[in-house]
Design goal:
The structure is a single chain. With about 160 residues, the chain is of the alpha+beta class. The protein has helices at about 40-50, 55-60, 80-95, 150-160, and strands at about 15-20, 25-30, 70-75, 105, 130-135, 135-145. The chain has one domain: Glutaredoxin. The radius of gyration is 15 Å and the shape is globular. The two termini are about 20 Å apart.
Length: about 160
């Protein structure tokens, strides 16, 4: 079954100044290209480059049928955990040659709000939150920091 390409009805990669800390942040729906721009590219590129996923686990992930799998990723570009875990997660998906069109990235402010997206309905308490869906149904989450590693936690969710 082919998955629909995620389409955005709002502006993507929008930046605002967060009043809490006077820092430029991304807000709302974003795509990976947002993280190639100042000021986000420095932390994104650094973490993405240095992270080395466990090859044994990524090989197991590569052997899975990932058709029907989509991700909703809620991050705060102001958040240290998001700055660490988000680039690592994307690196894992890159190694799996996962279709980035099947990822919905939503950036929130310090109040966990994302303008036109109702993040409250998603029950987001901490960022980053990686929501894993199969055929549109949530099958698991990685919240804030992985229990073991991103790749091992992802493998566990995908093989339940």
């Amino acid at each position: 079954m082919a998955l629909p390409i995620i389409a955005y009805s709002q502006e993507i990669n929008k930046t605002i100044t967060e009043p809490f800390n006077n820092e430029e942040i991304l807000i709302g729906h974003c795509n990976i290209s947002a993280f190639s721009k100042v000021p986000f590219e420095s932390w994104y590129n650094q973490e993405h480059k240095k992270y080395k996923p466990d090859a044994l686990i990524t090989d197991q992930l590569k052997s899975l049928d990932l058709s029907g799998i989509t991700f909703v990723i809620i991050i705060g570009t102001w958040c240290d955990d998001s700055q660490k875990e988000f680039p690592r997660f994307i690196k894992i998906l890159n190694e799996l040659e996962f279709n980035m069109q099947q990822i919905n990235i939503i950036c929130v402010n310090t109040h966990k709000e994302a303008e036109t997206t109702n993040v409250f309905k998603m029950d987001i308490e901490y960022v980053p939150t990686f929501i894993i869906k199969k055929e549109g149904i949530e099958i698991g989450r990685i919240i804030e920091s992985p229990k073991n590693s991103l790749e091992s936690d992802l493998l566990k969710i995908l093989t339940l």
